[in-house]
Specification:
The protein is mainly β and 267 residues long. The chain has two domains: 124 residues, Immunoglobulin-like, CATH 2.60.40.10; 107 residues, Immunoglobulins (Immunoglobulin-like), CATH 2.60.40.10. It has one helix and 20 strands. Strands 13-20-19-15-16 form a five-stranded mixed β-sheet, with no helix packed on it. The protein has a four-stranded antiparallel β-sheet with strand order 7-6-9-10, with no helix packed on it.
């Protein structure tokens, strides 16, 4: 390219510029643009203070997005086992293998990325119990051709799975008559709870309450019912009407809490 102008003495001056298009070099030769590379990203969704959320509780749904554009790069369901208790539930040394054992649950995505990309990974689970489903997310940088495998990207979900076993759905109770409240309570991965167990329910607050028109009209502590993960209480409701029965499991030290609801009618 040439530029021309006159100086203060009226003389013509010329200046030349050299321009060039420089292609991008790759191992395979010269190309004009970056090519996408298949890059693996392994995601594992786990339960707080417990194990992997595996197929036994419905697994977890995972979505991987470009964090800047929101475009979905991959999605699917985590499947597999809950992993090794001896690896996960004991004190470990830094750098030791925790989750990467044979059959352990996870979701392997294969992303087509052309340049270093910040991705947002979203997880929802467990999918097998709707009232217990929780959500978690984190971002990581994915570099083309540099797989993220081994332990994987860990997303931890807090909570308990609480299931009402009694009273039954649409139960009709008699005013002033005692009735049983019974619940099954597990970790989000389905791991069992019991007094003194690996998941020690002595550390949890487990109770039921009855609510009508937004007000609590009764509350009862629930005790271990003699069967792993089962808890029960005896309650009475003196006034007729429709009530929402709520059952809670809370571990304040670990940040885990869960709840289930059931409507009962008192005649």
């Amino acid at each position: 390219m040439r530029e021309c102008w006159r100086d203060d003495g009226g003389r013509v001056r010329l200046r030349y510029f050299l321009t060039a298009i420089i292609p991008i070099a790759t191992m395979g030769g010269m190309v004009s643009a970056l090519e996408a590379q298949a890059t693996k990203v392994l995601v594992r969704v786990t339960a707080k203070d417990a194990k992997i959320i595996g197929s036994g509780v419905g697994g977890a749904h995972i979505t991987i997005r470009d964090a800047d554009t929101g475009a979905v790069l991959a999605e699917g369901t985590q499947e597999g086992s809950t992993g090794s208790s001896s690896n996960i539930m004991v004190p470990i040394e830094r750098g030791a293998t925790v989750f990467d054992t044979e059959g352990a649950g996870g979701f392997m995505a294969e992303l087509e990325v052309r340049e270093p990309t910040r991705v947002l990974i979203e997880a929802m689970g467990p999918l097998g119990t709707e009232q217990a489903t929780q959500f978690g997310a984190k971002t990581i940088l994915v570099v083309p051709g540099r797989d993220v495998t081994g332990e994987g990207v860990i997303i931890e979900l807090n909570g308990f799975t609480v299931e009402v076993q009694a009273p039954e759905v649409d139960a009709e109770l008699s005013a002033g008559a005692a009735f049983e409240i019974r619940s099954r309570i597990t970790m989000l991965c389905g791991c069992p709870t019991e007094p003194g167990g690996t998941w020690d329910s002595d550390d949890y607050e487990i109770f039921a309450r009855a609510v009508r028109d937004g007000e609590t009209v009764g509350e009862w502590p629930m005790e271990f019912a003699g069967e792993t993960s089962h808890y029960a209480a005896t309650a009475t409701l003196d006034a007729p009407g429709e009530f929402e029965l709520q059952i809670f499991a809370i571990d304040t030290a670990k940040g885990n809490s869960g709840m289930a609801r059931r409507t009962v009618v008192v005649r």
